[in-house]
Amino acid sequence: MKNSFYITTTIPYVNADPHIGFALELVQSDAVARYQRLLGHDVFFSTGTDEYGQKIWEASEKEGKNVQDYVDYYAQKFLDLKEMLNLSYDNFIRTTSPGHIKASQEFWNLCDKRGDIYKKIYRGLYCVGCEKFITEKDLMDGKCSLHPTLKPEIVEEENYFFRLSNYKKELLQYLSKSESIIPEWRRKEAIDYVQDGMEDFSISRDKKRFSWGIAIPGDDTQVMYVWFGAFINYISTLGWPNSKGVFEKFWQGGKTIQTAGKDMVKFQSVMWQGMLMSAGLPTTDTIVYHGFITGEGGIKMSKSVGNVINPVDIVKEYGIDALRYFLLREISPFEDSPFTMERFKDAYNSGLANGLGNLVSRIMKMAESHLSSPVSLNAEIKLDITKEMESFNITQAMNIIWTYINGMDANIQDVQPFKLIKTDKEKGLKEITMLAQRLYYVAEQLAPFLPETSEKIKTIVRSNKMPSEPLFLRKD
Fold first, then answer.
1. Is residue 470 a part of any domain in this protein?
2. pTM of the predicted structure, to 2 decimals
3. Nearest to 190 by CA among 133, 273, 134, 127
4. Is 468 exposed, middle or buried (CB count within 10 Å of its CB: 0-12, 13-18, 19+)?
5. What is the per-residue burial (b if ≥16 Cβ within 10 Å, else e) of 327-356?
6. Which of 8, 78, 98, 222 is most exposed, with the fewest beta carbons within 10 Å of its own?
């Protein structure tokens, strides 16, 4: 594996408060970034906000706010997630930043010089929610299938288009690599799209309709299509094109990973990769697609549907690592998964309060009572999650750790060292020492997933003190 590792989330629209669906993507990406750092790799982890587009313009108008003030207000809410979710990202890119605007315009010029940008009149159905033209096959009961509360409008205007069709052969070659997309069935979706449904796409909007967008070089009548400009955040966050040292290290010389929702396949793995090919830049090594978080009745959580759960509320009551635990262990890394408060509470009590938290208290009570000093921390213990983390199967990696935790708990029940020490002190002390050492090792394994809890456990073991209060209070 390359020593430089780059990972980025998608960047959400700043037209509403953050919700649990994006928290999933952030926490998954953060766990991968932390794991790669533990392996000794140089890591660059990026996220940010997408602040242009018709949806944002209309939302600011509806609230009677200046559009820049509007995006500043909501961008801060996403910036606040760093502390709230204990994220370790290296940069937060905003598409309204001067550096990103300059990068988008330079990228446009590269594609234009390649002959891949042209102008034409287009008439079609336009979904404001998707910020793109859609076709009849995208409709369900006359509404956009992804935004069932929005009725598409018929729009006719002259726009610039990107010649994605020029890159069909190259895209199929790129997608033929098994590592280009995880999971495998999403790669097949991308291949099918390139073979059967891929078309050139509009990359600008007429300023007469709305002006909130990045200016197009040499044409003050149009602004950049939000998707075209937004994609470029994945390299502008690395300082491209002005400061190429970080870009060369991570995008050109490192392993590049993007994470995205399953509805982004044609955008991230086809449109964006075609744009990179046009600009003469390396394509993304791997894009990992997660499923949707669903609410009651299996309906996707989304701002447009109005069934979102605010992660802030969860963290306030249960703590950061409780939310991280649920998202990383109970939500599938690839398939749709339900998030209900009943399911969350059950998982919290069984896995954390009655599971890990209770185990820590039991072991450290014995250690503090019977060991004269903290245990040595160099015991050789085997617990391998490499295969699972390399394939981004975070849930399975967590399951392996919890199987080990449950095994430790079963060992206590079987051996009962708290009784053994009364009849065979040497053997009892050996069992307690081994349990404390294993507990420290578990804490090290938990570092990418539950960093706050990991540090607490390591501190407890190093001090040989029982925690003054339970790590996770049971919730009835």
1. no
2. 0.92
3. 273
4. exposed
5. bbbbbebbeebbbeeeebbebbbebbbebb
6. 98
- Rounded CA gap, 436 and 458, in Å? 10
Q: Is residue 319 part of a domain?
A: no
Same domain? For 163 and 228 the reply is yes
CA distance to 128, 298, 303, 427, 471, per residue, from 152 (Å): 7, 24, 17, 73, 50
Taking the C-alpha atoms of residue 403 and residue 23, their distance in angstroms, rounded to an integer, is 26
422 domain-assigned? yes
- Residue 295, both tokens: 């609410």
Q: Could you read off the pLDDT of 49-99 as tens digits, one per residue? A: 999 988 898 889 889 999 999 999 999 999 999 999 999 999 999 999 999
List, for residues 107-150, the tens digit of each pLDDT value: 999 999 999 999 999 877 877 777 667 777 777 777 887 777 77
- Residue that is last in its domain, among 290, 314, 332: 290
- Give yes or no: residues 108 and 208 share one domain: yes
Q: Is residue 327 part of a domain?
A: no
Q: How many domains does the chain have?
A: 2
Terminal Cα-to-Cα distance of the chain (whole angstroms): 46
Residue numbers of the domain that contains 276: 4-290
Dist CA 451 CA 323 (whole Å): 12
Spacing of C-alpha 339 from chain mean position? 17
Provide the residue count of the chain: 476
In a shared domain, residues 275 and 379: no
Give the whole-angstrom CA distance, residue 376 versus residue 461: 10
Q: Give the CATH number of the domain where residue 352 resides.
A: 1.10.730.10
